Amino acid sequence: MDSEAKKTLIDTQALGILKRFFGYDSFRPQQLDIVRTVCSGLDCVVLMPTGGGKSICYQVPALLLPGVAIVVSPLIALMEDQVQALIANGIPAAALHSNQSDAQNAEIYEALRRGQLKLLYISPERLMLELERWPASMKVSLFAVDEAHCISQWGHDFRPEYTQLARIKTLFPRVPVIALTATADRLTRDDISRQLALQQPRVFISSFDRPNISLTVKQNPGKAQKLKQICSIIDRYPDDSGIVYCLSRKAAEQMAADLQQRGYRVAVYHAGLSASERSSAQHRFIHGDVQVVCATIAFGMGIDKSNIRYVIHNNLPRNIEGYYQEIGRAGRDGLPAEAVMFYSFQDIITLQSFIDESGQKTLNQEKLTRMREYAESSVCRRRVLLSYFSEESTTDCGNCDVCRQPPLRFDGTVVAQKALSAIIRTGQTVAANMLIDILRGSARSELFARGFDKIKTYAAGRDLSFAEWRAYLSQMLQLGLIEIAYDENSHLKVTPHGMRVVRGLEPVTLARYVVEKPRTERPAAAKPATDATVNADLLHRLKALRANVAKIHGLAPYMVFSDKTLREIAKEQPTSRWEFEQIYGIGEYKAEKYWEQFTRAVRLWNSSLKNKD
Length: 613
Ligand code: ADP
Ligand code: ZN
Description:
Elements: H1 3-22, H2 31-39, E1 44-47, H3 54-64, E2 68-72, H4 76-88, E3 93-96, H5 102-113, E4 119-122, H6 124-133, E5 140-145, H7 167-171, E6 177-181, H8 186-195, E7 202-205, E8 213-219, H9 223-235, E9 241-245, H10 249-261, E10 266-269, H11 275-286, E11 292-295, E12 308-313, H12 320-327, E13 337-343, H13 345-357, H14 361-375, H15 381-388, H16 401-404, E14 409-411, H17 413-425, H18 432-439, H19 445-449, H20 466-478, E15 482-485, E16 491-494, H21 496-502, E17 509-511, H22 536-553, H23 557-560, H24 563-572, H25 577-581, H26 588-612
Parallel strand pairs: 1-6, 1-7, 2-4, 2-5, 3-4, 5-6, 8-13, 9-11, 9-12, 10-11, 12-13
Antiparallel strand pairs: 14-17, 15-16
Adenosine-5'-diphosphate (ADP) binds next to helix 3.
């Protein structure tokens, strides 16, 4: 067969598999190209944002090629999640990891020996053991290395056990390897190809844009206000769920306690909990028993909960890669979702201390700087993000806070001068909070003890609130007028540029700090209810049915059908199996399993309407 004919054959088969097993009508950009590459036996590196659809890229070839696909994955929870979802689609899959009994293991080996599995998920350290003892007769179709950035020291999630994976190519030189990650910086990318010893891999880079996620950064308005604002976000989605990321375990626990006290259903997740506590939190979240998970960065990798509606960052994150991956967990179903970050002066100080203790100081410093540039941006935030991932964007997104409400600028020269001169008059020996207290004329005893009430700028800035001062100081920092001396108790120092401003040689423009008004309605873009063709009552009934069905089958609701699929059912109102099978996200297996119950629900609802007339 010539290569063109072979390509057409692969295309036809791949599309058939996509429809039959996953219920999708078409591939997303790049997916088909990747499937072709793997099916032709070539290596590739796939960079796609979280939620972009990486799994399909190896799952479809796994079904198309003879043999079993080996999928390397770093987390047990992630493997189990994927295996369950595959089985729910009628695809024979299993996971080999340390939390299994001998009996379970034996069953999997038996299935492997008989060639009954299409996909086997496995941890990297376990794979190293298995590789040496697998029977030569076992036919491996492909190796997929998920979360491949874990192989690189440059990445933000280095795992030493990944570095052994080059053995794959030595032992199976003819089997294609597909490496997948949502982390895109060039260093990590090159590292992946090198460390896996890939042979002239094709590199696929998808757009990292996730236009359905709205982006907002808020200056930290103080603890009580912040909590209020977080609650108002949660309140906007009473039937849905989200994540609050915190910098430390303690902070995550505190946040959970605060929210719980206010009546929210909450779980905590961080690396300090036992494995069973963590998997229980994850389980409750996936099954919709909790609204919010308060977590450190340890949470969320590989959770394919497609209806996470908001991701809140309680603080400035450490770097853009991590941040982007975290917010990417929202809105995987393509429906509107929100990413809200709170950012304060204190965050920079805290993060700086992490960096000082870390091994790779220069690199981490650089990454933090880029993160700050994003948080402090006065241009479209999405453009800042995309440019970080080397993607060109020529228009403003219209779905970030800067686009929605461009900052009002004013001549801030006098404001800046007051702050700068106060810093100088204290001999540059105070940190931000003390400086603001001085400017606002606070009666704090430490301030009197150090004689700061005597300096000329004492109370010179009492016309501005604490929050305003904090916002303006942070802008001054961004403008390079001041610096934080991290090695001197975070005291503020005036830069040469700042000195020119004090002397009146240069003006300063600042962005007006706006006090947040509490908002209870969903943002305009995040209002699925505006979809007039979806009947809310029917959707509600379908959700209840889905919850029931999920309980009976021991699955998470979204593994039965995603929210998007449910909305499609409510919209199309299928009443026959044939109509049911045409719906987005319903493959043959699920159609067979669920069509009767769901079409009956639609019919019942229709006739109840007629009875009302
Ligand atoms: P990633 O691993 O890249 O984070 P997933 O593979 O979990 O993303 O895919 C995210 C979501 O998109 C899943 O719900 C998946 O079923 C869906 N998806 C993937 N490919 C397609 C497609 N071609 N058409 C429709 N939905 C898709
Ligand atoms: Zn924008």
